[in-house]
Design goal:
- The structure is a homotetramer.
- Chain A is α/β, with parallel strands linked by helices.
- The first copy, chain A, folds into two domains: 4-151 and 293-336, Rossmann fold, CATH 3.40.50.450; 156-289, 3-Layer(aba) Sandwich (Rossmann fold).
- Chain A has helices at 17-32, 43-47, 96-106, 117-127, 153-174, 189-198, 212-224, 253-259, 262-273, 295-313, 333-336, 348-355, and strands spanning 4-9, 35-39, 51-54, 81-84, 90-93, 111-115, 133-137, 176-182, 202-204, 230-235, 278-283, 319-324, 327-332.
- In chain A, strands 3-2-1-6-7 form a five-stranded mixed sheet, with helices on both faces. In chain A, strands 9-10-8-11 form a four-stranded parallel sheet, with helices on both faces. A two-stranded antiparallel sheet of chain A has the order 4-5.
- The model of chain A has no long low-confidence stretch (mean pLDDT 93).
- Chains in contact: A-B, A-D, B-C, C-D.
- At the A-B interface, helix 5, strand 8 and strand 11 of A face helix 5, strand 8 and strand 11 of B.
């Protein structure tokens, strides 16, 4: 019987996931003649034994496709699994025994787990109980400290930048203050990159709580110079100094409705200062997560995918692939967990922003 | 002294405005050796005598640029002009006398007024008092009955469709209900075209007030077939049957905050029915109005611009250029005013939608 | 037994083909509960009896996909069919009897034939011998007289225009004469639209044989004004006055090699006049035919597809759908054959070009 | 008098040049209150004393613009300068004395020279004779060993990949072998990245001379599996084993015409093996060099630009900015000269290609 490996994708969407699946499948088949088992909907499919064989045919044409052909699950944590009770309620249980048993039955050389911090913590829990897993890092926010770049991030930046470009011309011609809310709950990498690339006048990120008066003053300074428009890029996790971020109240719908998103909230406050201007809001949302990945992310996903298969072939179980400079390397999964890579408020990017005249709100 | 024409752009932003300005300028100079005067910020610049000469050099490179190099003004109506008083308050006055006098001083063969319904009504008012004006139609919403297509509309549709494309893959991989709010306060052309082109499952437009239960039922039907995601394209002017649209309460900030936008409001209601799904919202906003126009809109703007100069040369004062089929023609400005071209709830597009399985909400 | 219709796609690639297939399938199933049979590789599949059932599932996700899921065949003419002989040679035979018999066996309400002039002539031949066929027009070159617009054309124009945009900045910064060869063997619609939308300085189309000296002189006039770059958009069928087009020698490889493509040939001649400049060539080729269609073309393909099913339902056999203004209508297939819609050298587009300073070469 | 710095851009076009100019200008003005002098057309402007002041206003809106607002010159080498003689002939002279004198007259803190290997060798020559210069690396081919990434490269890769995507669908639907020629005279980075990201079946680069029979055999293997199309990405410097590259004969027009470009030449040979298929060629050319840069390249150009000003402020004359991993650093200009960074035929990228089934021709 041919050896086999498995692959699952966990967590939120990220352009480049299918490139990883394709590369893992192709490399495993072409170089090692392994069978490849795709596990559906992340750890949920492992619990429910929903698998599909992956072949050269089934991964054809995947590079351009957003999403993941395997599906994902945000909530299927083997250690805290939401079970639907007959009465409709949900109960959280530890189903890691079942998951480990199902995994053992598959007789995999290793499972390639593609996911973010949450997925890697689950993977680490299973690793500690004997599972054979290698990791591929995934975060649209690029906030994983183990690697220089994660796939999907650059796609999100390009999409957000194109939106900022479009907002620019209309803001300029029509004297508008336009806010563009981009992703980034805890880390401001997307806002920072898209804001700098798009020539934003103000960039607000979670790492630098903002003072409203600084933003107002930046806009007024521009008006004093005869520049009657301003573009503000706001990470969804941006928050006023001393306040809380809109994403902090997640789940509390009543407060969320009252608070609104980061951009909506700021827009209301700005509308009080600049009544003569039109203040407008664009909320990009999941547009940043979907669709065709950039070439950069397809290539990075492909390199991660082949790298993960190499880890399996070299017996490096428990490792996660990572990019350092131009080199694919690996680190232990446990070292990749729980440490967000944040924008340094005094680091190079923040300096570049300030040195080119961008107001960071503090 | 050379003959001269003037040009101004009024109303909201619309990709293709600069193509019109460029074509008017080039055709006037190349074919007739006229001087061209650009009037800044719409009728405001005419009142304030702010002009700039337009030359071949000043319109170079304009085809790719969004916005309008002349600026615009939404509120500068010569007949109801907002005057700032010394005490900071605003007063609305009829300044049409001054505007007509300034126009007369310019000694133009004609003024080319590029704008939407509002601008054309002002133009008509001035025409009736002796001004020499020809019109170029402009509405991002494509809701002008005098012409088959307005420039800018197709750009908005392409941008909205690309967003829907991106939302599709992420919705599919992650079992989401995603709402995408697009422009269209009174007419649903953008929503209809982008929804059909993007393969939306539900399209909600102002012309067809929706029943929530039909939307819920469409989503449930899909789930029954194993399709666990849905894409809903919502025009900003969409409204529930018997309710009012979010744009109807414009200006009343308190109610607006409570009501939210069309997509936000619907998302809250859907979240009550489909708690197990993530319901997500994208609000494209001014992204649809800005940036590089499509080739289609650049060409249409160019044809309108040369057509407008031809109207002047032929002495067809009071006419507005229009597209009928593949032909540039013209109609009286007064016939182009005040009649919105709406999506017919029983017309071809609505039938195409229903026949390809799209739920229109009623 | 349910009624059934068939569909095949013939001729060259054209973005929007899959939108037609999807719309035909959806409308037939949703509105009439008909079965839908996809015939593979155009008339070749009809001769070889290669069919596939088309269902809602098999047309999912098709709007964004270029190409045709049914495949096509350029050479499979039922009346002059290339048969491979056992000795490897090819013989051309009339296999229309077999094709008609196979068609009869399928017991279709009608066959929807999607294709260009060639496909429609074959369809007409079969119609005259009793086949039940309705047509959907397809030509990337937009040169069909029966309809205002064909799908795919606008996508090609957008792609070509984006290329011209990119060439513009590099030509300008680096004092280059850049030629961009676009599609258009007999009709210059793509060159004309992309050239006008992209701001080309010279546009050469098959309908207007060019004089080299006029092109040289236009470039020199620009230099005299201090403009040291020029962009030339060349249709592949463009030819010098009194000469022949590069596409005319198709099949004669030796002469083709010697002659080169339209842009290569002109580039060599310009290099002799402007040695101090760099003359560069881009040949877009099939890039214009492939990939995701624009929203415009997806919508048009969808409207054509539903319109074709309506023709079948209404018993309008022998008709081809067409767009007139904003209206989907139909004309007899035989009236749609053999008449190319060419750019009128004195028509509106050519005037718009000349009036905005574009050199047309004659 | 305020201190001042100068900036010039040399060599071929590269998206991101304007981002560098903008960042240098903004940082110099905002952080140090320096004046900024733009030197036109590279070293030619320094010789001819053509300068323009750069202000915040003159660099507004530059991020989205391709090309360089300062112009460039490929041939203006101060040490081998082409002088036009009165009789029309050209003579090459050493004008470095004049250039150094002009530079001294400008009394710059330093000159920021943005360019590739050629520009840096000129800069080094001037440095050795006392000029104060800092460098910013520029090469569309990403083949500079001193830095991990150069701006412009990623834009070229994205453009080439989009072309490959489009070719894919048409090749697949219509059974074509399509060759796409991309940039890369000596280094195959663009071909490699675009080929991998676009899912090419064959990638040919200068570093790996190809054997025609391997390409033929790869296409035949695909046909044996029922895959009737193939996509071949060819770097312009690709060459057969034992042969010479098409770019090697540059300047020898007769031989160049006979040889043709890399893709044309290979297409002719493939047409002999696969007569039943259509073999088609796309030559992207300067499309890859022009137009709006990606966000990645705008950000990199901005970081390089601010980094270069920091070098000046820190007195690090003779250094060139460089990217290592995620960090902006610098190296001596002389170390950055004359060493091309080539694709390693046995390195990671080549392995990734082979492991995912790509034929590299040897």
């Amino acid at each position: 019987m041919a050896k086999r490996i498995g692959i699952l994708t966990g967590g939120g969407d990220c352009p480049g996931l299918n490139a990883v699946i394709r590369a893992v499948t192709k490399h495993a088949i072409i170089s090692y003649n392994w069978d490849v088992i795709g596990i559906e909907d992340g750890f949920q499919g492992l619990y429910e034994k929903r698998y599909q064989p992956l072949t050269s045919g089934s991964v054809r044409g995947l590079l351009v496709r957003g999403g993941t052909i395997l599906g994902s699950s945000n909530r299927a944590n083997p250690f805290r699994y939401p079970i639907k009770l007959p009465d409709g309620r949900e109960e959280v249980r530890d189903v890691s025994e079942e998951v480990l048993r199902n995994l053992a039955e598959l007789e995999l050389e290793a499972l390639v787990a593609v996911g973010g911090d949450g997925t890697m913590q689950m993977a680490q829990g299973l690793l500690e109980r004997g599972a054979r897993i290698v990791g591929v890092p995934k975060t649209i926010d690029n906030d994983l400290s183990a690697t220089d770049f994660t796939f999907g991030y650059q796609t999100a930046v390009e999409i957000a930048t194109e939106a900022v470009d479009r907002l620019h011309t209309t803001a300029e011609s029509h004297d508008r203050i336009i806010l563009c809310e981009v992703m980034g709950r805890y880390a401001g990498w997307i806002a920072m990159a898209a804001g700098l690339a798009g020539g934003a006048d103000v960039i607000l990120i979670p790492e630098i709580p903002y003072r409203l008066e600084r933003i107002v003053s930046a806009i007024e300074d521009r008006k004093a110079k005869g520049i009657t428009f301003s573009i503000i890029v706001v990470a969804e996790g941006a928050k006023p100094l001393g306040g809380e971020s809109a994403v902090a109240v997640q789940g509390d719908l009543t407060r969320q409705e009252k608070l609104g998103g980061a951009a909506d909230r700021l827009a209301r406050e700005l509308a009080r200062h600049f009544s003569e201007h039109d203040v407008r809001v664009t909320v990009l949302g999941h547009v940043q997560r979907g669709g065709t990945p950039t070439a950069f992310d397809r290539l990075l996903g492909t390199r991660y995918g082949t790298g993960a298969v190499d880890l399996v072939a070299e017996g490096k179980i428990g490792q996660i692939v990572a990019l350092r400079g131009n080199t694919i390397t690996s680190v232990p999964i446990k070292d990749a967990c729980g440490q967000l890579k944040l924008v340094d408020p005094r680091g190079e990017l923040a300096r570049v922003a300030r040195h080119t005249g961008v107001e960071l709100g503090a």
